[in-house]
Design brief:
2 domains; four-stranded antiparallel sheet
Amino acid sequence: MNEKLTPEEQKTLLRLAREAMEYAVRGEKLPPLDLASLPPRLREAGASFVTLTIEGQLRGCIGTLEAYQPLAEDVREHAIAAALQDPRFPPVREDELSRIQVEVSRLTRPLPLEYTDAADLLSKLRPGVDGVILRDGFRRATFLPQVWEKIPDPAAFLDNLCLKMGASPDLWRRKHLDVMTYQVEEFHE
């Protein structure tokens, strides 16, 4: 991510996310996106997460770690998925739409974090800055950097990330896992 998005580009992505979510929740067909009408950076491949909250409480969050489609399409796709397909929550209902706040996180490319042992891993984490991906074989999980606000302790952060991955919370202490970090540009309504 070379440069931050302009306020106008951020507003466009938030509008696209909200429109996509509202169409999907109402069961309506989403109109095709006119990529040519968008600024160049929104047409470039980009990875995003879309987070939905109601009064500060998580209501859905879905995204991707690797860019594979235009950023604007990525945001629309993940807004719909966050509203209807997050397995932790029932689908968003139409009567909830007016209370939902949309947040978009644009991700940098994840990079491997080299470490020697659990203590070294803890020392290399940057709370509040880095999103973290843990991988153990075919299992993997991530927390966006925003999760540090709720889990500021690095050991507890990794414990919870292991649980999210479907592993015991202390797996990161007992086994050398693949760890990657990334940063986000986050903005919300």
